[in-house]
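hey so i finally got around to running the thing on that chain from the lab meeting. sorry it took forever, my laptop kept dying and i had to restart like 3 times. anyway pasting the input first so we r on the same page abt which one it is
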Amino acid sequence: MNTTRLTPLRPQHLVMLGGTGFVGTHLLPRLVAQGHRIRVLSRNREQHRALAVLPGVSVHSADVYDRGTLLEHLHGADAAINLVGILNETGGARFRKAHVDLTSTLVAACREAGVRRLHQMSSLRAGEGKSMYLITRGEAERVVRASGLQWTIYQPSVIFGRGDGLVTRFAALLKLLPVLPLARASSKLAPVAVEDVCAAIAQCVQDPASIAQRYELYGPEQFALIRIVRMVAAALKLRRLIIPLPDALGYLQARIGELLPGKPISVDNFKSLALDSIGSVDGLAALGITPQRFSARLPELLHPRHGHAVLLDAARHVSGLAPADRARIAR
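ok and heres what got predicted. didnt touch it at all, straight out
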């Protein structure tokens, strides 16, 4: 587990968008351990009050798509961290709104508020292919690079960890279905641990050398999608028939999947998987972070834990939190 830590020149005041999500809840304890104060903007503060037990963290209900609201919360901040992203369009959530429009609004608000530093979450292969997820991620990157701000962009492969959308999703499907037809079964992934992604962001928050850099964040192992699904089944001790589908049937499965609760697969997911999520420039190595292996972590990920475990786990592996603060997180 990475415990890389730099001492900041001074504690920073950070404003985080998307901080209540999967990456954000793992990242917050690391930033707290470094002495930073973090203002987390959420659609509904009351649903995420548990985050406020972290010392220096405050959670605020806010419409992050409103420039005036962002401007109010950015006042006096040193940097903004944008972790907002969606994998599927549901309800009012649209790729262009979540990725491009929000980023444009945030950039404008940062300029007006005098916040010069921006950390932007993106994706490997952003701007490539036919998937609107990847297309809009690429458009958002262009907005950031042209912003005149001191930016850093993070491009992870598929991220794994407790509560992720990879292991958790396939585990649920495998428990339910004796036969699993699989679209884009040969698509290659280099899964990266959420802890490693968070270590990269936390390090860059403190390191001016990361300004104007894009970091590809991927793990040391590459697997075809079908191999990952078979590994999950084996770890669960389930005997399941996993059938790779030709693209025509895979597309049909994606069309049907869009209509099912939770969207186990969508047409846009299908298009994303046309591109291997594998990097070429090792951003973790550039930051001195030794990546964790997906195969080694998989058995642990399949054991359910208490809902607040991610906060405690992150705190345990980052030095700097007082025992009393760790106890508060554990409660």
